[in-house]
Amino acid sequence: MAGSKDKGPVHPAKKFFLVAAVLLLVAFALSVAAIFTPWSMKFPSITARYSYGLWYNCYWDPTSTTNLRQCQGNVYEVGSGTSFIPVFSDTTARGYFHATQAFACAGAGWSFFSVLVLLMCASKIWSRPMGLAAYAVCMVFFAWAIIMMAWIMYLVYAEYPVWGQLPGFPWNTSVGTFTNGSSPLRGYSWGFILTVVAAFFALLSTVVTCAGLNKLRTWYPVQEPIAPVPEYPVVPQYPMVHEPAYYAETPQPLMPTYPTFDNPMSTYYY
Questions:
Q1: 65: confidence class by pLDDT, cuts 50, 70, 90
Q2: In angstroms, rounded to a whole number, what is the distance separating the alpha carbons of residues 96 and 150?
Q3: Which of 112, 103, 106, 102 is nearest to 24 (CA)?
Q4: What is d(CA 233, CA 211) in angstroms, rounded to the nearest whole number?
Q5: How far apart are the C-alpha atoms of 163 and 183, rounded to whole Å?
Q6: Mean pLDDT over all residues of the chain?
Q7: DSSP designation for 231
Q8: How many whole angstroms separate alpha carbon 146 and alpha carbon 110?
């Protein structure tokens, strides 16, 4: 096409690292979104709805005319209070929940820095950065492992029998009796689902990064064939003979002498 610029050859391993960076960037975005969305939702009655996030929990009444959502920060102390959400005064549940928080934040941060390493590999691809590519594989693998551990820890927490049901709980603690450890929390919501999907994208990024490392290790640029030098027949060399030039001076014959007449009246002979 006229006017198009020739960008030169493209290294086949570069596309692997770029695709891996895009996949891991999606995993990073999902992980960040999961940090600020509810991980579980409970519907104990038609007048009570609960949502549990990593940092806060909320309650609202869908039948209310105002339908105001009331939220409070999570409480991690262990005691006899009924509002100690979301660990419900259980040390084991608190350990699982804190592990979920740590892995969720670490997975988001680790995946972000892994994207930078992948882009660095793509930019230095022609220098064949084998060490940097191997480091990128390790970074992406750990990003996947950390994100996966986040939803696994929450799965263990949500299946642990710690959730207690109380009408109006936790803001109306004067009604009913709080029963600790009556049933698992469960009720998996958007935060948990987003983390599972993020782990899937991180796993795809790990596979693609490994393929890029393998391509970088095995691929070498093809050398252009050199055109053969044409062979001409050899001209025989003969000894040079120095011959006199055809215009060389040759002896001139002597001219005959004739009488000179200085005086026309006198005749002289030589």
A1: confident
A2: 10
A3: 112
A4: 53
A5: 5
A6: 77
A7: P
A8: 8
Residue of 210, 60, 65, 41 whose CA lies nearest to 135 = 210
| Edge-first strand listing for the sheet containing 70-73 | 40-45, 48-52, 56-60, 70-73
Write out the two tokens for 78.
């262990």
Enumerate the β-bridge partners of residue 73: 56
Show the beta-strand stretches assigned E in the chain: 40-45, 48-52, 56-60, 70-73, 161-163, 183-184
Reference 154, options 26, 59, 71, 31; nearest CA is 31
Name the more confident of 72 and 195: 195
Top mean pLDDT of 16-20, 72-76, 217-221, 255-259 is at 16-20
Q: How confident is the model at residue 267 (pLDDT cuts 50, 70, 90)?
A: low
Q: CB-based contacts of 60: which residues, under 8 Å, 6+ apart?
A: 49, 67, 68, 69, 70
pLDDT at 241 over 90: no
Q: Which of these, 9, 20, 26, lies nearest to 214 by C-alpha position? A: 20
Identify the pLDDT of residue 160: 85
Q: What's the DSSP call for residue 192?
A: H
Structure tokens at 150: 């986040």
Q: Could you give the percent of the chain with pLDDT greater than 70?
A: 69
Residues forming a β-bridge with 187: none
